[in-house]
Amino acid sequence: MTGTTTQIMLDLADLLGGVSNEEARAARSRLGRMSMAVACFALGCGGAALLFAAAQTWCFAIPPLVALCALVAEPK
What are phi and psi of 71, to 5 degrees? Predict the structure, then answer.
C-alpha cells in the first residue's frame, strides 16, 4: 500500500499543479483504480478487525481450515 498511496499523492499533486490533458487523463484513470484498491484494502482491514473483535483468537483458526478444505477439495 505504500507505493499505491504514494502514487495517489503524486497524481493528486500533478492534477492540482496542472499538466497536459493527456497526462491528466492518465492520472485520473490511475487515481480511480488505485483509490479503489486502497478502499478495498481499508474495508478488508475493517472486516478483519470486526472478526477479531467478535471471535477473539478463534479467528486465527479460519485460515488453516480454509487451507485444509482446499487440500481436501483438490482434484486428483
Answer: -65, -40
